[in-house]
Design brief:
The protein has about 300 residues and is an alpha/beta fold. The protein is globular, with a radius of gyration of 20 Å. Bound molecules: zinc ion (ZN).
Length: about 300
């Protein structure tokens, strides 16, 4: 982990989940996200202490385990306030929600790994507690109420609203809760003017427009792949197997849960857009390409 200054008062810690830091005076700072787990929390706290900073508060962009994983450790050591927006606040306090959403019910122990379920922390609503000089921007889609933070150094911390080209080429179906909202957020991101953009798992960027297009095009490609697979009627499990084979993905319980959940988000989007439909046969739920609307998305 490495502390890098990128504005008068704005820093970030380069990490597998980048951590934002905004200094409100000589000593007090706000942290943006806390990394994977207690170990990340411990390393972040060491950097904070080595630089004689004092944590005034933590802002979480969203409730995924790799963004809130250090909350519990840092809050126990410093008693700091943690803030998150709307549903993300609740899901960061009650971390059972993340594996429950992925599984679609009460998750068994294999789905409650630290990658999918962080330790809980006490969290306050962000919207009425945004520190001076920081601005909250809504980046819904990746999760229901993900937010980004703009600092007055013209730096945007944009959470998981953009995924790297390498990750897209490797996994293809990156996590999205609401496809339509995610596409709206991509349009919104393309309107932002800033000095630097820091997505949580990407190196710092001055220009994000190429990456916005790569993210958007991959979503359209996946939509068309699903529609093409559903030229033949399929159950959910058959469709999921076809998607894993098409993109050369390897099935395990974590991937099954995450990709299965993402596929359901795509199915919802495509049903709402009248691209696919469903029916029941022999007590099986079957999906098929819509005959009402054959136009490609
Ligand atoms: Zn995430």
């Amino acid at each position: 982990m490495e502390l890098i200054q990128i504005g008068k008062n704005t820093y970030y810690i380069k990490n597998n989940t980048n951590i934002g830091i905004y200094k409100i005076n000589e000593k007090d700072i706000y942290l943006i996200d806390t990394g994977n787990d207690s170990d990340a929390g411990k390393k972040i706290l060491k950097i904070i202490n080595d630089n004689n900073f004092n944590i005034k508060g933590i802002i979480n962009t969203h409730s995924h385990a790799d963004h809130i994983g250090g909350n519990n450790y840092i809050q126990n050591k410093t008693n700091t306030n943690i803030y998150a927006h709307k549903l993300e606040q609740i899901m960061t306090e009650y971390t059972i929600f993340e594996p429950s959403i992925l599984y679609g019910g009460n998750p068994h122990n294999d789905i409650k790994s630290k990658f999918l379920m962080a330790k809980p922390s006490n969290v306050l609503e962000l919207e009425n507690n945004i520190p001076e000089y920081l601005e909250m921007i809504k980046l819904y889609g990746h999760t229901p109420n993900m937010i980004g933070i703009k600092t007055n150094d013209d730096v945007y911390f944009i959470g998981d609203s953009l995924i790297s080209e390498e990750t897209i080429n490797k996994y293809h179906l990156f996590y999205i809760f609401d496809i339509k909202e995610y596409l709206n957020t991509l349009d919104y991101l393309s309107t932002l003017k800033g000095k630097y953009f820091i997505a949580s798992h990407i190196d710092i960027k001055e220009d994000i427009n190429d990456l916005i297009n790569i993210n958007r095009n991959k979503i359209y490609e996946i939509c068309n792949t699903i529609i093409n697979i559903l030229e033949k009627d399929k159950t959910f499990e058959e469709l999921l197997k076809n998607i894993f084979e098409y993109y050369n993905l390897v099935m395990n319980i974590t991937q099954y849960s995450i990709i299965g959940s993402v596929l359901k988000s795509y199915i919802t989007y495509l049903i709402n857009e009248n691209k696919i439909e469903y029916y029941f046969d022999d007590n099986k739920l079957i999906y098929k390409k819509s005959i009402k609307n054959n136009v490609k998305v």
